[in-house]
Amino acid sequence: MGYYQGTTPGQSWDPRSVLQFDNPQVGYQTCFGTAITYGRRCRRQVSIGPFIPAKLQAQEPLKAAKSSWLNALALDGLCWQHVHQVDDVIARWRHALHKFAETQSAGTKSSSKGHGPKPSTAGSRPTPKTEQRHPDVDDIMEQIRRLREELEKLLSEQKSSSSYSSGPKPSAQQPQQQDHAEEQRRREESEEKAREARKREDSERAERARAKRQKEKEREEREWSDACARYEDRWSNIEAGGGGLASSQIPWPTKSGKGTTVDERAVREFFRRMPSLLLSDEPGEERFRVISRETKRWHPDKLQVGLGGKSSTVNTKTTLMWFRSWFSCFGKMQR
Predict the structure, then answer these.
(1) Which spans does this entry mark as compositional bias, Low complexity (predicted)?
(2) What DSSP character marks residue 255?
(3) Which residue ranges make up each domain of the chain?
(4) pTM greater than 0.90
(5) Of 123, 252, 282, 301, which residue is least crowded by CB atoms under 10 Å?
(6) Which range among 163-167, 174-178, 221-225 has the greatest average pLDDT?
(7) Alpha carbon separation from 105 to 52, 57, 58, 131 (Å, rounded)
(8) How much is the average pLDDT of 189-206?
């Protein structure tokens, strides 16, 4: 990993393993902080260079536990969201280093007992003396840790007591701020829900209006299609020689098919809606063909012949007046 690899017993530990650089839940290096909401270690990846771990590895575990490099490593390995947990991380690491030192010391003692006591020689430094210092140091460090915990507990109680006894104003402000924040949150949630409800209502209203317009459009198209079909059927009857029509049977070119609704606007709209014009690939030529056909149909002289020259059911004078009026309208359309 690029760390310094020493040869003395104090340098035979691996910071990555002892301090758990890798998150065991995911299998790679992540932030050392704790995601309190999820009750697990943070899974945000962080990058730690080899310099600080090498500095720690160069020291004995118990010295590394008191080293300022441990604080630097914690700051380097915490993400922005959990940097406030630096003291908790350091305390956890110190405990791990103490445990590691105890295990290492116990292993050394066991090895020494297996070989029996070594005689002391002049001029040589007895190794058991060095090994016997570790339990004492461990006890001292444990006592320091406990004293620090007690001190922090006392300071916390003192701070709580002083803030409680300093008067009603400071103690009342915090609940008021919390109440205000909670009220603000509820108000924002209520406004958000209201916006969402209005948005849904607007969307549903627009959808209903669109469906209504589509239904109205389809109904109108059916009515125009029926009117055009009725018009063509009546003309087919006249052109086949079925004269002597009643007034109600005259094929007026309007949506209602009644002579009372004949005017230039109604006639223009009727022929604009004819399926042959709407569906034609060449609307210009089809329009010319329709105008030519209708001009012949509605010529007064030919119309009398088409109706069979009978006037028993139709007032000839009144009918011809309507025909001339229509012919005038259609002539304007043709121009």
Answers:
(1) 107-121, 157-178
(2) S
(3) 9-111+137-159, 224-334
(4) no
(5) 123
(6) 221-225
(7) 25, 17, 18, 7
(8) 94
